[in-house]
Amino acid sequence: PQMSDDNPFVIPEMDPTLRKQIQECNWQVVNVTTPANYFHVLRRQIHRDFRKPLIVTAPKNLLRHKECKSNLSEFDDVEGHPGFDKQGTRFKRLIKDRNDHKEVEEGINRLVLCSGKVYYELDDERKKSERSDVAICRVEQLSPFPYDLIQRELKRYPNAEIVWCQEEPMNMGAYSYISPRLYSAMKTLGRGTFEDIKYVGRAPSAATATGFLTVHVQEQSELVKKALQPELIKFP
Ligand SMILES: *[C@@H]1O[C@H](CO)[C@@H](O)[C@H](O)[C@H]1NC(C)=O
Ligand SMILES: *[C@@H]1O[C@H](CO)[C@@H](O)[C@H](O)[C@H]1NC(C)=O
């Protein structure tokens, strides 16, 4: 993601009909978490009247995940199908919380942003711990950064503490790409500074993972719990 050439401190013109942001960026990096979104990102790529490299970093183990599925209605736009949306089905750069939240939800204390398969673990932990004050949004397109949709979600949860959760060590994954851009999005809305982005993930490390399965599993469960209880987090 760091090879994306957009300036993290300048929010570009975001009008989706102009498609200016994507035209000005060197490539697209996506980490899709549903079959329908995978389908739509490939379809979008072919349908566009311009060409831009597309990098899909979605892991193949999601293909076997039982929660990772889409209704047929999410692939087409046949009126009458469950989930029919007048705008038609399309690639989602960001997937909103799966609970149908209103335009403004003051009771949400925590907005967890994540990307990739860790979403399913977070959602599972939220179910188990019955945290109804936590919203989880998936950033499906990392680059170019979906400022407009991120800001829409920041406005939806005016009282929420903002958490970036990833399973990778801090110096890997999307954190170093996301954080300055998330900061820019927050700053223009008066939602705080860099320190208000709570990081939940593994500590910086030279290796992508510990070599021990039991340690890995323990780390994973700790970080997922931490994302829902950032009282436990100290900056950074
Ligand atoms: C898929 O369709 C079923 C039945 O209509 C519905 O209950 C479910 O919420 C839908 N799932 C999604 C992800 O839209
Ligand atoms: C995409 O998600 C997968 C699985 O969660 C993760 O391993 C990978 O590092 C993510 N890619 C980026 C660029 O964040």
Give structural notes.
The protein has 236 residues and is α/β, with parallel strands linked by helices. Helices cover 30% and strands 16% of the residues. The chain has 6 helices and 8 strands, in the order αβαβββαββαβαβα. It has helices at residues 20-24, 35-47, 118-129, 147-156, 175-188, 213-228, and strands at 28-30, 54-56, 94-95, 110-114, 134-139, 141-143, 161-169, 197-202. The strands form 2 sheets. It has a 5-stranded mixed beta sheet, sandwiched between helices. The chain has a 3-stranded mixed beta sheet with strand order 2-1-6, with no helix packed on it. β1 (28-30), α2 and β2 (54-56) form a beta-alpha-beta unit. α3 packs across α6 and α4 crosses α5. The protein is globular. The protein starts with 19 loop residues before the first helix and ends in an 8-residue tail after the last helix. The structure holds 2-acetamido-2-deoxy-beta-D-glucopyranose (NAG) (2 copies). One 2-acetamido-2-deoxy-beta-D-glucopyranose binds at residues 71, 82-83.
Estimate what percentage of residues fall within beta strands: 15-25%
CATH superfamily: Multifunctional 2-oxoglutarate metabolism enzyme, C-terminal domain
Q: Tell me the total number of β-strands.
A: 8
Ions and ligands: 2-acetamido-2-deoxy-beta-D-glucopyranose
Helix content: 25-40%
CATH third-tier fold name: Rossmann fold
What order do the strands of the largest sheet run in, or round the barrel if closed? 3-5-4-7-8
Our Rg estimate from Cα atoms comes to 18 Å
Main beta sheet: strand number and arrangement?
5 strands, mixed
- Low-confidence runs: none
Q: What is the CATH architecture assignment?
A: 3-Layer(aba) Sandwich
Q: CATH class, anyone?
A: Alpha Beta
Average pLDDT confidence is 90
